[in-house]
Design a protein that fits this description.
The complex is a heterodimer of chains A (about 775) and B (about 160). The N and C termini of chain A lie far apart (about 55 Å). By secondary structure, chain A is of the alpha+beta class. In chain A, helix 11 runs parallel beside helix 18. Chain A folds into three domains: about 15-25 and about 465-605, Aldehyde oxidase/xanthine dehydrogenase, molybdopterin binding domain (Aldehyde Oxidoreductase, domain 4); about 30-130 and about 205-295, Aldehyde oxidase/xanthine dehydrogenase, a/b hammerhead (Aldehyde Oxidoreductase, domain 3, Alpha-Beta Complex); about 295-410 and about 420-460 and about 610-770, Aldehyde Oxidoreductase, domain 4 (2-Layer Sandwich). Chain A has a seven-stranded mixed β-sheet. A five-stranded mixed β-sheet of chain A has the order 11-20-19-18-12. By secondary structure, chain B is α+β, with helices and mostly antiparallel strands. Chain B has helices at about 25-30, 85-95, 105-115, 125-130, 140-159, and strands spanning about 1-10, 10-20, 50-55, 55-60, 70-75. In chain B, strands 2-1-5-3-4 form a five-stranded mixed β-sheet, covered by helices on one side. The longest helix of chain B is centred in the C-terminal third of the chain and has 19 residues, at about 140-160. Chain B is globular and about 45 Å long. Chain B starts with a strand and ends with a helix. The chains are: A alpha+beta (about 775), B alpha+beta (about 160). At the A-B interface, helix 1 and helix 17 of A face helix 2, helix 3, helix 4 and helix 5 of B.
Chain lengths: ~775, ~160
């Protein structure tokens, strides 16, 4: 791209200084006079009817302002006690029954945290246990206990408009894709591969747990400060839940300490709002880590995948994907849909059959997790693709490259792919790890192997991002955007785009943090969508302002606006830098007063084509794609089963990189996060009770887990309608880590692990099995 | 039970009355509004709430305030003079060793303690020393480089 001043440069983060000094504003640092603190009593049962709640002793405790139950919430005027982004199924506090261990039942607001916790000890609740269901494959059966009798669609998002009301089933959403003739292809196949893969529930573990502060201002408006990835949605949800008009709700989001999907949609906001409305005092609820474990998880997924091979090529693939969405659907249906349609892979397969089921169980609710479900389906299809390649004697890289989709070919949904650098990603991954170099002879108890995996995610479509750019008379600009800065560097990206378009210095752009009083609607900060959607919105708004500036200069200098360009804080005649005006001069010429402003709004709103509900076929199922590949080298200790990742290369097609270093950070950070998810992260449940719900028992990747050699590789296949050709990068590095590592383990040892995480126990067991031995069963298996 | 204690926080002596159950984290945040000190795991396992106790890194969420009476406590607020960055902070910015940055205060203080204790650490020693601090954005490669750069800058300054 020619002559770009700041786009494409790895400028430093806008927020670097405030963050490195610890001064960056977080919700936990905001205090209000008379502010109350919250403690919540949670269900000890996975499924039970509430028969009695006795709260009078708690209410009488000195310092307690309110003790709230689900029945109390239901009595609030105009309230809908249930909320949720796909179905309104989650009660603010349990009404009549509880649906998982950890379900909030009673909330106390008190003068300090300790008083609130003391008051909980004084609350008595009686339960009558109900039959519960924990296994997703059991939950889909007709005779299984029902988690919810009825499913009430929320109708909050355009992409979920097709979600239907349901009843008498734990399946709350079923996506179908049918193309070609799968039965015929299996009948004619040379070989058929059939496998089941599983991926466990896991924690997002943002270092900052959820925290929300709500107060009523002097006009009795609801003011919310919250660590959320979706301020616009929070406002909508509160408006619907409490029947309060939108202009009476103000949601602000300062810096948040990580999200990874955990902080999407509504979490603490409905409960804290109810407490603020009842007490008429500011209320802040900060989850502790144990509660965080009981709030939202990554979906547990079971994938049954069956593949037909004819003449060395994949001719058919049938996938059955079961998403354990827990007690409340949360965003499970969106995940079951968007990830569901990618579950045959980025490959040319003439016959595809997919059933993707989103299923209620009596587990902690599952929601979006970096990758939006795609890592779980890639785990299945690109483990199996590797197994097939090795079984039929093909090279795993060549075997993938052959059917990997080319630009302009149709995906399994029928949608023609554009800006689809999957082949390039595979090639770059292979090159990074010296794939073609002959392997050293393996001997002893430490075996090395290399693995590769590829996959693709499609961006959520349709979705909406609005932005306003305000240019100030001194040539600086303020950008009003609801994109949340959660570490990904969005302030920097948006700043670069606006600076580029207006021809001003990067440090002359200020990004206003999300505030629904002033920043326009944005669907979510998630799904690798902000650079494209919000990037386009801020760019288009800047273009409108520039057009106004050009008009003034064109009239003043008597030139054609088309001959004018912006740069160095001026507008001047192309090729004649001396013939122009500074921005201050333009503003003075236009307004005749000091300190004036020019504002423009723009909305980026890509649309999707209709998707046939029976076949999943669509002319356009997504606005753009993120191809990903990972290459890993492992060392497996055959005596302990320990797997050490010695090399890791994370390759992603991000479109044009607005800030290359930030794209690299996203790719590598996502990859190392998923290294932990691959090797050791798992929430372990026993009869619905979480066994390892603390950071003492649940480990995430530390600096010691970082491979000795690891590197991100940014593949830039420009997107024709992306801002300067950009797409996104937040999830790409997450998609293909697990199968790359499993494939490397197979390369090293010949054993295949089908259930994540790949613990030493599983590896030892598989090694023993290969030798014909059987090890004793583990308690939680 | 309430009792009076004296803490030397960022070079200033402070005498306060605390409950026996108050953690150092609660005292630093609730009484002194030192917002760089942040709770994350609550069980001393993630390093987010790291402060320096007589120069040594400790998890302030897992330490009772009454246990540290008379001791010197350094938080990130006390690391620089408030006008310019400490060279470890500069190294973090330079190497882009922060994303959501909720963990950053803990990491910066751990690097400070590391370089005070081992002026010329190997990569292995850096990894070992920082393994008690978690970064969920997983910017560990950048953090390792920042620690290395800070070490170089400090060793130049010592010469």
């Amino acid at each position: 791209m020619a002559n770009l001043a700041v786009v494409g440069q790895s400028v430093y983060r806008k927020d670097a200084n405030s963050k490195v000094t610890g001064r960056a504003l977080h919700v936990g640092n905001i205090e209000m006079p008379g502010m109350l603190h919250v403690a919540v009593l949670r269900s000890p049962y996975p499924h039970a009817r509430i028969t009695r709640i006795e709260k009078s002793k708690a209410q009488a405790l000195n310092g307690v302002a309110a003790v709230l139950t689900g029945a109390d919430v239901a009595k609030m005027p105009g309230v809908d006690p249930y909320y949720g982004p796909a179905f309104r199924d989650q009660p603010i506090l349990a009404v009549d029954k509880v649906c998982y261990v950890g379900d909030p039942v009673v909330a106390v607001a008190a003068k300090d945290q300790r008083t609130a916790e003391d008051a909980l000890q004084l609350v008595e609740v009686d339960y009558e246990p109900l039959p519960a269901v924990f296994d997703v494959l059991e939950a889909v059966k007709a005779e299984s206990p029902l988690v919810h009798e009825k499913h009430r669609p929320a109708k909050a998002f355009a992409d979920l408009a097709h979600v239907k009301a349901g009843q008498q089933s734990n399946i709350c959403y079923h996506f179908k894709l049918r193309t070609g003739d799968v039965d015929k292809a299996f009948a004619e196949a040379d070989r058929i591969f059939e496998d089941t893969f599983s991926s466990p529930p896991a924690q997002h573990m943002p270092m900052e747990p959820h925290v929300t502060l709500v107060y009523l201002d002097e006009q009795e408006r609801i003011n919310v400060w919250t660590a959320s990835q979706s301020p616009s949605y929070v406002r909508t949800e509160l408006s619907n839940t409490f029947s309060i008009p939108m202009h009476h709700i103000r949601v602000r989001v300062p810096y948040i300490g990580g999200g990874y999907g955990a902080k999407l949609y509504a979490k603490l906001e409905p409960l804290v709002t109810a407490l603020a409305l009842i007490t008429k005092r500011p209320v802040r609820y900060a989850l502790n880590r144990e509660e965080e474990f009981l709030t939202i998880t990554k979906h547990k997924v079971i994938t049954k995948i069956k593949t037909a091979i004819k003449n060395g090529s994949i001719t058919a693939r049938k996938c059955e994907v079961f998403w354990d969405t827990g007690a409340y659907a949360e965003i499970g249906p969106r995940i079951g849909h968007k990830s569901g349609y990618t579950s045959a892979g980025p490959y040319r397969i003439p016959n595809v059959w997919i059933d993707s089921y989103c299923v209620y169980t009596n587990h902690v609710p599952a929601g979006a997790f970096r990758g939006f479900g795609v890592p779980q389906v890639v785990w299945a299809y690109d483990s199996q693709t590797d197994m097939i390649a090795r079984a039929i004697g093909g090279d795993p890289v060549e075997f993938r490259l052959k059917p990997a989709l080319n630009e302009g070919e149709p995906f399994a949904t029928g949608t023609v792919v554009r800006s689809f650098g999957v082949k390039e990603a595979i090639r770059q991954a292979a090159e990074a790890i010296d794939w073609s170099k002959p392997r050293a002879v393996q001997a002893g108890t430490k075996l090395r192997g290399k693995g590769i995996a590829a996959g693709v995610k499609a961006v959520l479509t349709p979705s909406i991002s609005g932005a306003i750019v305000i240019m100030n008379a001194d040539g600086t600009a303020n950008v009003l955007s609801s994109t949340v800065e959660m570490g990904q560097g969005s302030e920097t990206t948006m700043g670069q785009i606006v600076a580029e378009e207006l021809g001003i210095a990067f440090d002359r752009v200020h990004i206003v943090q999300p505030d629904t009083d002033v920043t326009p609607y944005d669907t979510i900060t998630a799904g690798s969508r902000s650079t494209y959607h919000m990037g386009n919105a801020v760019r288009m708004a800047a273009v409108k302002i520039k057009a106004e500036l050009l008009e003034v200069v064109a009239a003043k200098l008597e030139v054609d606006p088309d001959d004018l360009v912006a740069g160095d804080g001026r507008i001047f005649v192309r090729g004649m830098a001396h013939r122009g005006m500074t921005i201050s001069e333009i503003f003075l010429a236009k307004f005749g007063s000091l300190g004036t402003t020019l504002a423009a709004e723009a909305v980026c709103q890509p649309t999707a084509g209709h998707m046939d509900p029976e076949t999943g076929q669509s002319e356009k199922c997504t606005e753009y794609w993120f191809p990903s590949a990972t290459a890993a080298e492992v060392e497996v200790d055959t005596e302990t089963g320990q797997v050490k990742v010695v090399q890791l290369f994370s390759v992603g097609d991000t479109g044009t990189a607005i800030n290359p270093r930030h794209c690299e950070q996203q790719l590598l950070g996502a990859a190392i996060m998923h290294l932990g998810l691959t090797l050791f992260e798992e929430m372990i449940f026993s009869e619905g009770q979480l066994v390892n719900g603390s950071l003492l028992d649940y480990q995430v990747a530390s600096i010691k887990d970082m491979p000795e050699s690891c590197r991100p590789v940014v593949v830039e296949v420009p997107h024709e309608t992306g801002p300067f050709g950009a797409k996104g990068a937040g999830e790409t590095g997450a998609l293909t880590v697990a199968p790359a590592i499993a494939n490397a383990i197979h390369d090293a040892t010949g054993v295949r692990i089908r259930a994540l995480p790949i613990t030493p126990e599983k590896v030892l067991r598989a090694l023993a099995e290969k030798k014909g031995e059987v090890l004793p069963k583990d308690k939680f298996e | 039970m309430k009792r009076g204690i004296t803490l030397k926080i960022n070079g200033r002596e402070e005498t306060i009355t605390v409950e026996d159950a108050d953690t150092l984290l609660e005292v630093l945040r609730d009484r002194f509004k030192l917002w760089s000190v942040r709770e994350s795991c609550g069980v001393g396992a993630c390093g987010t709430c790291t402060v320096l106790l007589d120069g040594r890194p400790v998890s302030s969420c897992f330490l009772l305030a009454v246990r540290v009476t008379g001791r010197h406590i350094t938080t990130l607020e006390g690391l620089s003079d408030g006008h310019s960055l400490h060279c470890i902070q500069e190294a973090f910015v330079n190497q882009r060793a922060l994303q959501c940055a909720y963990c950053t205060p803990g990491f910066v203080l751990s690097v400070k303690a590391l370089l005070d204790e081992i002026p010329n650490p190997s990569d292995e020693e850096i990894r070992e020393y920082l393994s008690g601090n978690l970064c969920r954005c997983a910017g560990y490669a950048d953090i390792l480089r920042a620690a290395r750069l800070a070490q170089q800058q400090l060793s130049i300054a010592r010469k």
